[in-house]
Each structure stands twice: as C-alpha cells, then as structure tokens.
C-alpha cells in the first residue's frame, strides 16, 4: 500500500533539481509499486518510461540466447533506469528487473525529453547535466563489472554485489536467495552457496531463508575486490549531489 512517506526527493537525482525544474516534472511523476522480479523492459523493447527508484533496486541484466543471464549494473535511489530515452537509442540490449522490492517514480518519455531538451545546449538545464553525469557512473559500473566477472573469485564478486546493493538501500538486510544471486552474477548456485557460507562462518553476514543481513560491513569491504571501491569512488566524485547543489547556487561549474 502506498503511503505518504514516499516522496520524489527520496531519489537523489530528483532531490538535486532546482525547484523550478522539479515543479515542471512533478505533475508527471507517478508513484508505482515495484514487486520483486517485475520486468520493466526486455532487450530491444522500445522504452516508454524512465524510472527513478526511491526504495527499490533495479538490476540491469544481459540475457543470452540460451536463457543464461548476468547482471551488468544495479540502480537504486542514486539514479535512473531508462537512459536510452535521453541518449537517443530508444531501446537497450538488456533486461531491467526488480532485484529488491519497493517503490519508484515513473516518468513518461515526453515530459522527460521536453525538460532534457529545454537547455538547448546551454548551461541552464540542470537535469541534462545530472543525467549525463549519472550515465558516466553507470558506464563505469558496467565496465568494472565485466572486469570483475572475468578476473575475480566468486567470493569477491559476492562481496562486491552485496556492498553495491547495500549502498542503494536504507537497511543492512537483503531479501535474496542464492539462486537469484547466482543468476545476477552469472555463476553456479553452488559457488554462491559456498561463498556465502564462508562469509557467514567469518561472522560477516547472517543468511536465513532468503534473508541476508550484513553484520560487519568493514570486514565485507576488506573481503571484496578493488572493483567495488573503483565504482564507489567514481560515483562519489560525480554524484556528490550536495556539493553539486551548492555549486549551482553559487554559479560555480564543477
């Protein structure tokens, strides 16, 4: 059930917009429930909406012809799903599916593009600059995920995945089975079970009936490979919304 506790400013991109730009978009923002496993779009489908998550996490998955899949990026309250709308592609070669249930704000293509194009190449449109900065972060995450999947162990991949997910939730608990994690990472379920068992034995996580609780985050960060920190550093640099907001008010370019 939707409650008054949900608001657009729970998404950091929307929260950073100047009041005048946000007011133009606000009438078109629709709060929608995002149940676990819901597919927002399939590979090659024409996108009709952009999604601004507030309490959910969306996984971007590449699906092979034989049905096998692997996650290439995760999006939470820091970003947007549907970059093809403003990048000019209209479609994406991946699937977007809800990894962690919650809520998001949905925005139709026309009002998004109308606001995106309003700047007409000038520096007056904040939304344009925010979305382009976020796209750079997303590209970094995709590239680092590819490197991680090729060169690092399942233990390290699992730790990285847990940390990226936690960064996008206001909780230290994830509702996720080993089978779903294996599908996200593109590895065998047995490998995830073994890796999770090591983390639980070390007292870093607690896993019970599909609920994963991170007990020692600093230890999990040590367990993870360098890929997590690469993505986090780039995200912190480009998506420092507070600093970006202050620069807008002072008229200073970052």
Description:
Helix content is 45%, strand content 20%. By secondary structure, it is an alpha+beta fold. It folds into two domains: 1-122, Jelly Rolls, CATH 2.60.120.10; 149-228, Arc Repressor Mutant, subunit A (Orthogonal Bundle). The strands form three sheets. A four-stranded antiparallel β-sheet has the order 2-6-4-5. Strands 1-7-3 form a three-stranded antiparallel β-sheet. Helix 5 packs antiparallel against helix 10 (226-238), helix 6 (154-166) crosses helix 9 and helix 7 packs across helix 8. The model has no long low-confidence stretch (mean pLDDT 86).
List the helices and strands and how they pair.
Elements: H1 12-16, H2 19-25, E1 30-34, E2 39-41, E3 49-53, E4 57-63, E5 69-75, H3 84-87, E6 95-100, E7 102-108, H4 109-116, H5 126-151, H6 154-166, E8 173-175, H7 178-185, H8 189-201, E9 205-208, E10 211-214, H9 217-223, H10 226-238, H11 241-250
Antiparallel strand pairs: 1-7, 2-6, 3-7, 4-5, 4-6, 8-10, 9-10
Helix pairs in contact: 5-10, 6-9, 7-8
């Amino acid at each position: 059930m939707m409650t008054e506790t949900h608001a657009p400013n729970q998404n950091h991109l929307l929260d950073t917009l100047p009041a005048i730009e946000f007011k133009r978009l606000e009438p078109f923002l629709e709060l929608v429930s995002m149940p676990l496993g819901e597919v927002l779009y399939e590979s090659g489908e024409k996108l009709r909406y952009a999604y601004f998550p507030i309490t959910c996490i969306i996984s971007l998955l590449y699906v092979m012809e034989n049905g096998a899949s692997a996650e290439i990026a995760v999006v939470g309250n820091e970003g947007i799903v549907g970059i093809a709308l403003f990048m000019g592609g209209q479609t994406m070669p991946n699937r977007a599916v809800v990894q962690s249930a919650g809520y998001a704000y949905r925005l139709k293509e026309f009002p998004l593009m109308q606001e995106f194009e309003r700047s007409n190449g000038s520096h007056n449109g904040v939304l344009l600059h925010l979305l382009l900065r976020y796209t750079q972060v997303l590209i970094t995450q995709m590239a680092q995920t590819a490197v991680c999947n090729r060169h690092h162990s399942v233990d390290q991949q699992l730790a990285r995945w847990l940390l990226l997910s936690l960064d996008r939730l206001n909780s230290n608990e994830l509702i996720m089975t080993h089978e779903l994690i294996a599908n996200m990472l593109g590895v065998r379920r047995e490998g995830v079970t073994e890796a999770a068992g090591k983390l639980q034995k070390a007292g870093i996580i607690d896993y019970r009936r599909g609920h994963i609780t991170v007990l020692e985050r600093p230890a999990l960060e040590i367990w993870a490979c360098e890929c997590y920190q690469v993505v986090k550093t780039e995200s912190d640099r480009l998506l420092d919304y507070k600093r970006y907001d202050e620069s807008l008010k002072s008229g200073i370019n970052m």
